[in-house]
Amino acid sequence: MDIVSSGGGVAAPISWTDPNLPSEYWWINVGAFFDRFNGKAINITSSTDPVVQGLLTLTLPREYIDLKRTDLASMLDILVSKSLINSDDKTAVLSPPTTEYERHIKGLVQPI
To answer: CB 3.0 to 4.6 Å from 24: which of 34, 48, 64, 105, for a disulfide?
Structure first.
């Protein structure tokens, strides 16, 4: 898919590796964020561990999760330390691509 530049010409397609990719590509809805945990989401959300409950208290009321937020990886490390997810799960949750379904901002061109 080509991207039309503001000058009317055709610009190169955008890429996940582009350092200038707009931040909005990393904003996903909270439900979609928990979908990334697959079947482990129920164990996370039903945990009675006070630290996990604290993470949920910080996460659930938000409109979206910024996958590039600097402290998100540390938060997921807590879930790894509690054996609620593993390091492969953490990598999958934080990794692109985000999809139209997941993204908080709809209608963005899908990077390649």
So the answer is: 105
